[in-house]
Amino acid sequence: MQDRVDRQTIVVGIDGSRGAVAAARWAGGLAARLGAPLALIAVVATVDFRITAAALAEADIMPTLRQAARRTVEQAADAVRADRPDVAITEQVVEGLPARELVSASEHARMLVVAATADDRISTFLLGSTALQVANKSRCPVAVWRGDPARALPDDRPVLVGVDGSPEGDAAVGHAFALAAGLGVELVALHAWNDPDLLRWVPVPPSNEALAQQEESLLGERLAGWTTKYPDLRVTREVRKSPTAPALLERAADAQVIVTGSRGRNRVTGTLLGSTSQNLLHHAPCPTVVCRTDFE
Predict the structure, then answer these.
(1) pLDDT tens track for 168-218
(2) Rounded (5°) CA angle 282-49-123
(3) What is the Cα–Cα distance from 277 to 2, expressed in whole angstroms?
(4) In which family does this protein belong, per the annotation (predicted)?
(5) Taking the CB of residue 255, how many other CB atoms lie within 10 A of it?
(6) Could you tell me if 69 and 10 are in contact, meaning their C-beta atoms sit under 8 angstroms apart?
(7) pLDDT, position 201
(8) CB neighbourhood size of 79 (10 A)
(9) Which of 12, 281, 291 is nearest to 147 (CA)?
(10) Could you tell me if residue 3 is left (phi over 0), alpha (psi between -120 and 50 degrees) or otherwise beta?
(11) Predicted model pTM
């Protein structure tokens, strides 16, 4: 895409759905608290499995599609301004493949926000949704918005972060500290220690008691530098003997957003998310922010 955004900008993908408007409102509230500009981007899909670019040109419907996309962006911008008139908003309409264009925008963004709609929940298992593709390939943290559109704005509930000791998990911890500090809310750092995916990051002690002590120490070590950087931030530490995704989903009932790391590089595709992050994207009751480190 030709138009670029800077590294402080929060970018939102707009598709005309109710969820996308709610995602834009959430991102607008976040931008206001963080002092960040907001960019709303609608993508006019020129090629997909149903229709070709040549057919679109021959039918001469591109002007209609562009006009519809502009309306969806304007409506989302109006909704954000109604909540937070102080947020600087740019509106963009581009042409191409939605996931590809949003990933391109993410290269110069602070965060990329997309909505998980009802259609997304079906297509992620069959065809692959834009939200899932973006979460797999984004060059910045991706927030997949899910929740009640009537309660779209950030509030006083805590930020929840999953801590696992992996490079991606460490990136999530840093992002969660900055997010909680910017929102002025509590941070809940949760480490679930009997998930086999997490045990590979630490040597396994000979007893459960020793293992529990080691996992407590791991959590403290992963938070130590960040608690020094954010000394005024209230941080609640929780260690659970539980699979990671169920523990986070249970705790998310009281959170306004979850921050998690991606699984990282996969030998087959190089960009697939892990089971925990995918589980959260499909089932979390609130927005989920996925942080990656395996940029190509």
Answers:
(1) 899 999 999 999 999 999 999 999 987 454 455 555 545 677 777 888 898
(2) 15
(3) 31
(4) Belongs to the universal stress protein A family.
(5) 23
(6) no
(7) 57
(8) 15
(9) 281
(10) beta
(11) 0.84
Contact 70, 42 (CB under 8 A): yes
CA-to-CA dists, residue 257 to 39, 96, 163, 179, 241, angstroms: 21, 30, 15, 10, 22
Cβ atoms within 10 Å of 59's Cβ, excluding its own: 10
Q: Partners of 237 in the beta sheet?
A: 189
Report yes or no: 53 and 46 within 8 Å, Cβ to Cβ. Answer: yes
Sheet with 257-261, strands from edge to edge, namely 89-96, 38-45, 10-14, 111-115, 142-145, 288-291, 257-261, 159-162, 187-192, 235-240
Report the largest interatomic distance among the alpha carbons of the chain, rounded to a whole angstrom: 70
Phi, psi for 132 (deg, rounded to 5) = -70, -40
Per-residue pLDDT of 214-270, as tens digits, reads: 888 989 999 999 999 999 999 999 999 888 999 999 999 999 999 999 863 333 344
Task: For the chain, list the domains and their CATH numbers.
Answer: 10-145 (3.40.50.620), 159-291 (3.40.50.12370)
Strand partners, 236: 188
d(CA 198, CA 261): 12
Compute the distance between CA of residue 25 and CA of residue 113 in angstroms, rounded to an integer.
11
Q: 189 with 236: CB under 8 angstroms?
A: yes
113-147 tens-digit pLDDT: 999 864 444 344 333 478 888 988 899 999 999 98
For 97-202, list the strands marked E by DSSP.
Answer: 111-115, 142-145, 159-162, 187-192
What H or E segment, with its residue span, contains residue 247? helix 244-251
User: Above 80 in pLDDT, residue 274?
Assistant: no
What would the pLDDT profile of 56-82 be if each residue is shown by its tens digit?
555 667 788 889 999 999 999 999 999
